[in-house]
Amino acid sequence: MKIAEGTGQELDRFNILAKSYGTVFNSLEWMRLFDGRVRHYGFYEDNGALVGGFSIYEEQRFGMSFYRNPPFTPRSDLSSR
C-alpha cells in the first residue's frame, strides 16, 4: 500500500470514490471552494487500486506552512472499506 498526491486522472477516481463512500465534504466540488489550497492524497493498493484518501488544507502563517482539515469541513477522509 502507498500514499500519493492525486493529480489529473487520479482526482477523477478520488471524486468517484468520494461520491460513492463519502459525504459532500469529500467531493471535489466542496474542496474547490478553497481556492486551490486543498491537496488530495489517495491510499493505493499494490495493484494501483484507489481504496481511500484524505484532503488537507495548506495555509501560510508567519512564513511557515500549516496543514489542517479544510475550513468548515468536519471530516476529510474516506474509505471504500
Question: Which keywords apply here?
Answer:
81 residues; five-stranded antiparallel beta sheet; 5 strands; 2 helices; Aminopeptidase; 21% helix; globular; single chain; alpha+beta
Q: Care to describe what's here?
A:
There is one protein chain. This protein has a single domain (2-79), classed as Aminopeptidase, CATH 3.40.630.30. Helices cover 21% and strands 38% of the residues. It contains 2 helices and 5 strands. With 81 residues, the chain is an alpha+beta fold. A hairpin with a 5-residue loop joins strand 2 (38-44) and strand 3.
Brief write-up:
The protein has 81 residues and is of the alpha+beta class.
The sequence of SSEs as H and E is: EHHEEEE
Helix content: 10-25%
Shape: globular
CATH class: Alpha Beta
**How far is the first residue's CA from the last residue's CA?**
14 Å
Summarize the main sheet. 5 strands, antiparallel
Strand content: 35-45%
Can you say what the CATH homologous superfamily is?
Gcn5-related N-acetyltransferase (GNAT)
The total tally of domains equals 1
Q: How many beta-strand segments?
A: 5
Q: CATH fold name, please?
A: Aminopeptidase
Report the average pLDDT across residues: 89
**Tally of alpha and pi helices:** 2
